[in-house]
């Protein structure tokens, strides 16, 4: 979730980069672009002025503009789904294994678009463009902080829709995404069923369960406990990096599976001479690894943006109908659901229940189960396992 994750879904960033570094990059090199909306109306009825989001695309748009696939990103991710910005980049985008020439999402056939969300976590990343609490409020000349309007998954979708409208794109051949990207995928299909021909949600279910709402509260709690957070008013002082890093550490572990922590680290010490029984400063290797990942990620992230993303995820249920069922039953496009039973964020039972509801009125639903030891993160690391099924689904 939320690439959610951690690098989830960062948990985040470092993990994914290491994993996909050897994958072949999309050619030619990718260009990051910026889309501007002078005035955006949120689903909750609030106005946000001067909205800006980054986006990138792979492949070519055909004359009829009918070959578009939208990629929605995870919680701690951004629009860099494939390829490299320069030949010197250490790693390509996170789904480079399945996006590109001759790959399951074939850029010889399809025009693939990916967009930075509002309140993107990586606001400190020079390759990310987003509007959120860290942005300057044009009415005050100061950062919004927690006065920024609450936004929802529908708002992320509506920003994407506005971009597509500006390009003259009225229908999507498919929409897909992992974790929080899966939530956006469901939302597209439920809110705009006449515009979506195929739906591929990856490692995500059709609503935020009570358990997930509780976990999102736990993710966010360390930020609010950091005295530097100061009710969100920290842009003129030291940011709450300790709280944010702790939040990211929780997300990183939650997005994994015990097979990763037990199998890769077990009870190993971080330093051969640093017995954890001798000092609180001596850590186990799993502790030091989580600290390093989270601290690295926190440098380019924003604590308030984290809180807004967590709120958007808590509020999610597809289509925002009267009930969870009403929203999911509004999905008419064929659905290919990709998940793993080892996922602690979106458990397999929740995914299967989502599938049962969608197909209860006759909508076609297929499920692909990934195998791996990384839990939620296998939606990125092991996505190539679903490659053949994705390619067939897109072609039929």
Give structural notes.
Mean pLDDT is about 95; it is low at about 1-25. The chain has one domain (about 15-395): Rossmann fold. The protein has helices at about 15-20, 155-165, 180-190, 210-225, 240-255, 260-265, 285-300, 305-315, 325-330, 350-360, 380, 385-395, and strands spanning about 35-40, 45-60, 70, 100, 105, 110-115, 135, 140-145, 175-180, 200, 335-340, 365-370. α2 (about 155-165) packs across α3 (about 180-190) and α4 packs antiparallel against α5 (about 240-255). By secondary structure, the protein is α/β, with parallel strands linked by helices. The chain has twelve helices and twelve strands. α10 (about 350-360) links the parallel β11 (about 335-340) and β12 (about 365-370). The protein starts with 12 loop residues before the first helix and ends with a helix. The strands form three sheets. The protein has an eight-stranded mixed beta sheet, with helices on both faces. The radius of gyration is 20 Å and the shape is globular.
Tell me the helix content: 25-40%
End-to-end Cα distance, whole Å, is 28 Å
Radius of gyration from the alpha-carbon trace, in angstroms: 20 Å
Classified by CATH, the class is Alpha Beta
- The CATH topology, please? Rossmann fold
Reported for the largest beta sheet, the result is: 8 strands, mixed
Please report the number of helical segments.
12
What's the CATH H-level superfamily name? Alpha/Beta hydrolase fold, catalytic domain
CATH architecture: 3-Layer(aba) Sandwich
| Fraction of residues in β-strands | 5-15%
Form type: globular
Summing up helix and strand content along with how strands pair, one would put the structural category as alpha/beta
Strand order of the largest sheet: 1-2-6-3-9-10-11-12
- If you average the pLDDT, what whole number results? 93
Low-confidence stretches: 1-26
